[in-house]
Specification:
- With about 300 residues, this protein is of the alpha/beta class.
- The relative contact order is 0.21.
- The strands form four sheets. Strands 1, 4, 5, 6, 7 and 15 form a six-stranded mixed beta sheet that branches.
- The longest helix has 18 residues.
- It contains twelve helices and 15 strands.
- It holds the Pfam family SBP_bac_3.
Protein backbone atom coordinates (compact mmCIF):
# COMPACT_ATOMS: atom_id res chain seq x y z
CA UNK A 1 0.00 0.00 0.00
CA UNK A 2 1.33 0.41 2.13
CA UNK A 3 1.79 2.13 4.96
CA UNK A 4 7.08 4.62 9.02
CA UNK A 5 4.28 3.26 6.95
CA UNK A 6 5.66 0.93 4.40
CA UNK A 7 8.93 2.44 4.86
CA UNK A 8 11.20 3.11 2.04
CA UNK A 9 10.41 0.42 1.83
CA UNK A 10 8.01 1.04 3.31
CA UNK A 11 1.91 -2.48 1.61
CA UNK A 12 -0.62 -2.85 1.22
CA UNK A 13 2.28 -1.14 1.93
CA UNK A 14 1.21 -1.80 2.11
CA UNK A 15 5.01 0.56 5.01
CA UNK A 16 1.45 -0.92 4.46
CA UNK A 17 -0.10 -2.18 1.02
CA UNK A 18 -0.97 -4.37 1.05
CA UNK A 19 -3.75 -10.12 -0.94
CA UNK A 20 -5.10 -13.57 -1.34
CA UNK A 21 -3.47 -15.38 -4.23
CA UNK A 22 0.20 -15.01 -5.07
CA UNK A 23 2.03 -13.30 -2.23
CA UNK A 24 4.77 -10.72 -2.58
CA UNK A 25 7.35 -13.44 -2.00
CA UNK A 26 5.90 -15.91 -4.50
CA UNK A 27 5.73 -13.25 -7.17
CA UNK A 28 9.36 -12.42 -6.64
CA UNK A 29 10.31 -16.06 -6.99
CA UNK A 30 8.29 -16.45 -10.17
CA UNK A 31 9.19 -13.33 -12.10
CA UNK A 32 12.49 -12.02 -10.85
CA UNK A 33 14.04 -12.91 -14.18
CA UNK A 34 11.37 -10.95 -16.00
CA UNK A 35 12.15 -7.90 -13.90
CA UNK A 36 15.85 -8.20 -14.54
CA UNK A 37 15.33 -8.53 -18.27
CA UNK A 38 12.97 -5.58 -18.27
CA UNK A 39 15.49 -3.42 -16.49
CA UNK A 40 18.22 -4.36 -18.93
CA UNK A 41 16.01 -3.94 -21.98
CA UNK A 42 14.91 -0.39 -21.23
CA UNK A 43 17.82 1.10 -19.33
CA UNK A 44 18.21 3.80 -21.96
CA UNK A 45 14.83 5.28 -21.02
CA UNK A 46 15.83 6.00 -17.44
CA UNK A 47 18.97 8.03 -17.97
CA UNK A 48 19.14 11.18 -15.90
CA UNK A 49 18.14 14.53 -17.39
CA UNK A 50 19.16 18.10 -16.68
CA UNK A 51 15.94 19.45 -18.21
CA UNK A 52 13.93 21.49 -15.73
CA UNK A 53 10.92 19.42 -14.69
CA UNK A 54 12.47 16.36 -16.33
CA UNK A 55 12.06 14.96 -19.83
CA UNK A 56 11.16 11.40 -18.87
CA UNK A 57 7.67 11.63 -20.35
CA UNK A 58 9.11 12.54 -23.76
CA UNK A 59 11.58 9.66 -23.55
CA UNK A 60 8.86 7.22 -22.50
CA UNK A 61 6.74 8.30 -25.46
CA UNK A 62 9.67 7.75 -27.79
CA UNK A 63 10.37 4.31 -26.32
CA UNK A 64 6.68 3.37 -26.21
CA UNK A 65 7.01 1.64 -22.83
CA UNK A 66 7.09 2.60 -19.14
CA UNK A 67 8.64 0.32 -16.52
CA UNK A 68 6.54 -0.07 -13.38
CA UNK A 69 8.07 -1.01 -10.05
CA UNK A 70 5.71 -3.46 -8.34
CA UNK A 71 5.96 -5.44 -5.11
CA UNK A 72 3.85 -8.52 -5.84
CA UNK A 73 1.10 -7.45 -3.49
CA UNK A 74 -2.51 -8.32 -4.20
CA UNK A 75 -4.56 -6.27 -5.03
CA UNK A 76 -2.13 -3.42 -5.59
CA UNK A 77 0.27 -4.78 -8.21
CA UNK A 78 1.08 -8.39 -9.03
CA UNK A 79 1.51 -11.07 -11.68
CA UNK A 80 -1.61 -13.26 -11.97
CA UNK A 81 -1.77 -17.04 -12.44
CA UNK A 82 -1.58 -16.57 -16.21
CA UNK A 83 1.63 -14.57 -15.91
CA UNK A 84 -0.07 -11.26 -16.70
CA UNK A 85 0.60 -7.97 -14.92
CA UNK A 86 -2.46 -6.71 -13.07
CA UNK A 87 -3.62 -5.01 -9.87
CA UNK A 88 -5.19 -1.65 -9.19
CA UNK A 89 -2.02 0.35 -9.80
CA UNK A 90 -0.87 -1.38 -13.02
CA UNK A 91 -4.38 -1.32 -14.50
CA UNK A 92 -4.67 2.37 -13.71
CA UNK A 93 -1.19 2.97 -15.10
CA UNK A 94 -2.15 1.26 -18.36
CA UNK A 95 -5.04 3.68 -18.83
CA UNK A 96 -3.22 6.85 -17.83
CA UNK A 97 0.01 6.18 -19.71
CA UNK A 98 -1.98 5.25 -22.82
CA UNK A 99 -3.60 8.67 -22.60
CA UNK A 100 -0.15 10.20 -22.20
CA UNK A 101 1.07 8.51 -25.38
CA UNK A 102 2.91 5.54 -23.87
CA UNK A 103 1.37 2.33 -25.20
CA UNK A 104 2.95 -0.37 -23.05
CA UNK A 105 3.74 -0.99 -19.40
CA UNK A 106 6.39 -3.43 -18.23
CA UNK A 107 6.63 -4.85 -14.70
CA UNK A 108 9.83 -4.76 -12.68
CA UNK A 109 9.15 -6.85 -9.56
CA UNK A 110 11.03 -6.10 -6.36
CA UNK A 111 10.62 -6.14 -2.58
CA UNK A 112 8.40 -3.38 -1.24
CA UNK A 113 11.33 -2.01 0.71
CA UNK A 114 13.35 -1.72 -2.49
CA UNK A 115 10.78 0.32 -4.42
CA UNK A 116 12.02 3.78 -3.52
CA UNK A 117 15.73 2.91 -3.79
CA UNK A 118 15.00 1.15 -7.09
CA UNK A 119 13.12 4.14 -8.44
CA UNK A 120 15.83 6.61 -7.50
CA UNK A 121 18.55 4.36 -8.92
CA UNK A 122 16.57 4.24 -12.20
CA UNK A 123 15.82 0.51 -12.18
CA UNK A 124 12.28 1.46 -13.23
CA UNK A 125 10.41 4.64 -14.14
CA UNK A 126 7.44 4.76 -11.76
CA UNK A 127 6.39 3.01 -8.56
CA UNK A 128 2.98 1.40 -9.19
CA UNK A 129 2.37 -0.43 -5.93
CA UNK A 130 -0.37 1.42 -4.08
CA UNK A 131 2.27 3.05 -1.89
CA UNK A 132 1.02 5.14 1.01
CA UNK A 133 1.97 8.80 0.89
CA UNK A 134 3.65 10.03 4.08
CA UNK A 135 6.10 12.81 4.98
CA UNK A 136 9.07 10.46 5.26
CA UNK A 137 8.59 9.17 1.73
CA UNK A 138 7.79 12.62 0.40
CA UNK A 139 11.38 13.60 1.20
CA UNK A 140 12.62 10.91 -1.18
CA UNK A 141 10.13 10.76 -4.06
CA UNK A 142 7.50 12.80 -5.82
CA UNK A 143 3.94 11.48 -5.41
CA UNK A 144 0.91 11.80 -7.62
CA UNK A 145 -2.32 12.59 -5.84
CA UNK A 146 -3.77 9.44 -4.23
CA UNK A 147 -6.02 7.22 -6.33
CA UNK A 148 -7.54 5.66 -3.20
CA UNK A 149 -7.82 6.19 0.55
CA UNK A 150 -7.69 3.46 3.14
CA UNK A 151 -8.45 2.67 6.76
CA UNK A 152 -6.93 -0.10 8.86
CA UNK A 153 -8.51 -3.32 10.06
CA UNK A 154 -7.53 -6.41 12.03
CA UNK A 155 -7.59 -10.13 11.39
CA UNK A 156 -8.83 -11.76 14.60
CA UNK A 157 -10.24 -15.12 15.59
CA UNK A 158 -13.92 -15.73 14.93
CA UNK A 159 -16.06 -13.77 17.35
CA UNK A 160 -13.17 -11.44 18.18
CA UNK A 161 -12.82 -12.95 21.69
CA UNK A 162 -10.55 -10.19 22.98
CA UNK A 163 -12.65 -7.36 21.56
CA UNK A 164 -9.82 -5.83 19.57
CA UNK A 165 -11.01 -2.89 17.50
CA UNK A 166 -8.13 -0.40 17.72
CA UNK A 167 -4.43 -0.24 18.47
CA UNK A 168 -5.31 1.09 21.90
CA UNK A 169 -7.31 -2.09 22.54
CA UNK A 170 -4.30 -4.19 21.54
CA UNK A 171 -2.11 -2.36 24.04
CA UNK A 172 -4.61 -2.31 26.89
CA UNK A 173 -5.54 -5.98 26.51
CA UNK A 174 -1.92 -7.06 26.08
CA UNK A 175 -2.76 -8.91 22.90
CA UNK A 176 -0.03 -10.54 20.84
CA UNK A 177 0.29 -8.51 17.67
CA UNK A 178 1.59 -9.02 14.13
CA UNK A 179 1.80 -6.97 10.98
CA UNK A 180 3.69 -7.01 7.69
CA UNK A 181 7.23 -6.13 6.76
CA UNK A 182 7.60 -2.36 6.52
CA UNK A 183 3.87 -1.78 7.02
CA UNK A 184 2.66 1.59 8.31
CA UNK A 185 0.80 -0.39 10.95
CA UNK A 186 4.09 -0.93 12.78
CA UNK A 187 4.32 2.76 13.61
CA UNK A 188 0.61 3.02 14.38
CA UNK A 189 0.93 0.27 16.99
CA UNK A 190 4.07 1.83 18.46
CA UNK A 191 2.37 5.22 18.67
CA UNK A 192 -0.45 3.57 20.63
CA UNK A 193 2.11 2.26 23.13
CA UNK A 194 2.99 -1.20 21.82
CA UNK A 195 6.65 -2.17 22.13
CA UNK A 196 8.11 -2.48 18.66
CA UNK A 197 10.35 -5.33 19.79
CA UNK A 198 7.24 -7.33 20.72
CA UNK A 199 5.65 -7.05 17.26
CA UNK A 200 5.76 -10.20 15.14
CA UNK A 201 6.75 -9.11 11.63
CA UNK A 202 5.55 -11.41 8.84
CA UNK A 203 5.94 -11.11 5.07
CA UNK A 204 2.34 -10.21 4.20
CA UNK A 205 -1.34 -10.56 5.08
CA UNK A 206 -1.45 -14.22 4.06
CA UNK A 207 1.27 -14.99 6.59
CA UNK A 208 -0.63 -12.83 9.07
CA UNK A 209 -3.80 -14.83 8.52
CA UNK A 210 -1.86 -18.05 9.08
CA UNK A 211 -0.38 -16.68 12.31
CA UNK A 212 -3.81 -15.81 13.70
CA UNK A 213 -5.33 -19.13 12.60
CA UNK A 214 -2.46 -21.04 14.24
CA UNK A 215 -2.79 -19.08 17.48
CA UNK A 216 0.69 -17.59 17.21
CA UNK A 217 -0.81 -14.11 17.64
CA UNK A 218 -4.14 -12.65 18.66
CA UNK A 219 -4.32 -10.08 15.89
CA UNK A 220 -2.79 -9.08 12.57
CA UNK A 221 -3.08 -5.46 11.38
CA UNK A 222 -3.29 -4.45 7.75
CA UNK A 223 -5.32 -2.33 5.38
CA UNK A 224 -9.07 -2.74 5.49
CA UNK A 225 -9.05 -3.93 1.88
CA UNK A 226 -6.41 -6.64 2.16
CA UNK A 227 -7.75 -7.85 5.49
CA UNK A 228 -11.33 -8.23 4.29
CA UNK A 229 -10.15 -10.02 1.14
CA UNK A 230 -7.79 -12.47 2.81
CA UNK A 231 -10.29 -13.70 5.45
CA UNK A 232 -12.98 -14.58 2.91
CA UNK A 233 -11.91 -18.22 2.72
CA UNK A 234 -11.02 -18.60 6.40
CA UNK A 235 -13.30 -20.52 8.74
CA UNK A 236 -11.31 -19.54 11.82
CA UNK A 237 -10.92 -15.78 11.50
CA UNK A 238 -12.77 -12.60 10.66
CA UNK A 239 -12.01 -8.99 9.81
CA UNK A 240 -12.85 -6.20 12.22
CA UNK A 241 -14.65 -3.06 11.12
CA UNK A 242 -12.29 -0.56 9.47
CA UNK A 243 -10.97 2.19 11.73
CA UNK A 244 -8.72 5.24 11.60
CA UNK A 245 -5.37 4.86 13.34
CA UNK A 246 -4.30 7.70 15.60
CA UNK A 247 -1.34 9.63 14.23
CA UNK A 248 -0.02 12.65 16.08
CA UNK A 249 -3.01 12.47 18.39
CA UNK A 250 -5.54 12.68 15.54
CA UNK A 251 -7.51 10.10 13.52
CA UNK A 252 -5.67 9.48 10.27
CA UNK A 253 -6.68 8.33 6.79
CA UNK A 254 -4.00 6.95 4.46
CA UNK A 255 -3.88 7.43 0.73
CA UNK A 256 -2.06 5.35 -1.89
CA UNK A 257 -0.41 6.85 -4.96
CA UNK A 258 2.18 6.51 -7.70
CA UNK A 259 5.74 7.63 -7.00
CA UNK A 260 8.14 9.40 -9.37
CA UNK A 261 11.72 10.58 -9.10
CA UNK A 262 11.92 14.05 -7.49
CA UNK A 263 13.10 15.71 -10.72
CA UNK A 264 10.19 14.43 -12.82
CA UNK A 265 7.61 17.11 -12.06
CA UNK A 266 6.40 17.29 -15.67
CA UNK A 267 5.53 13.61 -15.72
CA UNK A 268 3.89 13.76 -12.30
CA UNK A 269 1.83 16.80 -13.28
CA UNK A 270 0.69 15.23 -16.56
CA UNK A 271 -0.22 12.05 -14.68
CA UNK A 272 -2.28 14.05 -12.18
CA UNK A 273 -4.20 15.78 -14.96
CA UNK A 274 -5.37 12.44 -16.34
CA UNK A 275 -6.03 11.06 -12.86
CA UNK A 276 -8.34 13.97 -12.09
CA UNK A 277 -10.26 13.32 -15.32
CA UNK A 278 -10.75 9.68 -14.34
CA UNK A 279 -11.98 10.67 -10.90
CA UNK A 280 -14.45 13.19 -12.32
CA UNK A 281 -15.87 10.77 -14.88
CA UNK A 282 -16.17 7.86 -12.45
CA UNK A 283 -13.87 5.71 -14.56
CA UNK A 284 -11.33 5.48 -11.73
CA UNK A 285 -13.79 3.58 -9.56
CA UNK A 286 -14.65 1.27 -12.45
CA UNK A 287 -10.94 0.44 -12.80
CA UNK A 288 -10.39 -0.17 -9.08
CA UNK A 289 -13.67 -1.92 -8.20
CA UNK A 290 -12.65 -5.37 -9.57
CA UNK A 291 -9.82 -5.37 -7.03
CA UNK A 292 -12.14 -5.02 -4.03
CA UNK A 293 -12.19 -1.24 -3.66
CA UNK A 294 -15.44 0.42 -2.62
CA UNK A 295 -16.82 3.88 -3.32
CA UNK A 296 -15.91 4.80 0.27
CA UNK A 297 -12.26 4.29 -0.72
CA UNK A 298 -12.34 6.82 -3.53
CA UNK A 299 -10.77 10.09 -2.43
CA UNK A 300 -10.09 13.75 -3.09
CA UNK A 301 -7.05 13.74 -0.81
CA UNK A 302 -3.97 15.37 -2.32
CA UNK A 303 -0.32 14.43 -2.06
CA UNK A 304 0.35 17.87 -0.58
CA UNK A 305 -2.03 17.15 2.31
CA UNK A 306 -0.50 13.75 3.05
CA UNK A 307 3.06 15.03 2.70
CA UNK A 308 2.24 17.58 5.39
CA UNK A 309 2.80 20.55 3.16
Amino acid sequence: MAPPQRSPHTSPEHISRLGSGPTRRSLLAGVAALGALGAAGCSRVATASDVEGGDLLDRLRAAGVVRLGIAGEIPFGFIDKDGELTGEAPELAKVIFKRLGVDRVQPVPTEFGSLIPGLNSQQFDVVAAGMYVNPERCEQVLFSDPDYQMLDAFIVRKGNPKGLRSYKDVVEKKASFATGTGYAEIQYAVEAGYEESDILIVPDQVAGLNAVEAGRVDVFAGTALTVREVVKKSAKTEATEPFKPIVGGKPHVDGGAFAFRPTETKLRDAFNVELRKLKKSGELFRILRPFGFTEAEMTDLTAKELCGG
